[in-house]
Amino acid sequence: MHSFTIKDLEKLSGIKAHTIRIWEQRYSFLKPARTGTNIRYYSNEELKTILNVALLNKYGFKISHIDKMKDAEMKEKILLLSQQEAQQERIVNSLIQYMVDLDMENFEKLLDSFIATRGIEKTILQIIFPYLNKIGILWLTNHINPAQEHLVSNIIRQKLIVGIQHVESRVHSQKSVLLFLPEGEYHELGLLFVNYLLKSKGISTYYLGCCISNDDVEFVATLKKPDYLYTHLTTCGTKFNLDKFITAISKKITTIPIVISGQLTLSYHKKLTAPILFKKSFSEVMDFVSEL
Predict the structure, then answer these.
(1) Is residue 4 a part of any domain in this protein?
(2) Domain of 242?
């Protein structure tokens, strides 16, 4: 049994923490436990409940009505949601629920089912990316077991690689991008996703993978002369210092723009100088890819 903070629930469900507190006072579907210092924490079951409640509420059900539903009725109502966005959110929420239950068989079956009906590209854009965007908060706060993270990551990694291998683009760009993760960063899914986006736009990529030294990046960049370097920083180890990394890589690579995206960019507030560029949101990443 894992515990989640009210901030975890806020990030995963999209419901503000103060609203969750009000719901707790007025309704019965959430009953958090408390630590010795009176801080709320929530179980796996309560996480799953808030995901379902938030989804139904978003698509027209009143909280007072939802509060009276039994679990079976709630699940039935969710399955009957007809809007495309609602169906996609339902699948993303189901993936989160399978992950916390360590039900990797149904996790993969659900992904495979969506791939079979919608194709790998829509699966990546409509399901995998929104899922990673939500679940990233749990990885950053260490509120899931590392085994859960590894099992989920390996399944998604396989799907992304298949998507990258089979992607076809109707256009071909003359641009090229070298992708890598610095030493200490092993969370590869974000970078794989960016690799997929680039290749889907006909952009050539050199994919080095995770935990690459600056010397190796410099070596490949000197030989291949890409138009950009790209790295995606999710949650590097405790010894990783973003400021030191930026300083070091800027000394190694002086003429090629270095694009950095990912969670760590959000907490960095120093002024950036060439060749460093930050992309702090998915829309900024998409704009960057589209402009190449």
Answers:
(1) no
(2) 169-291
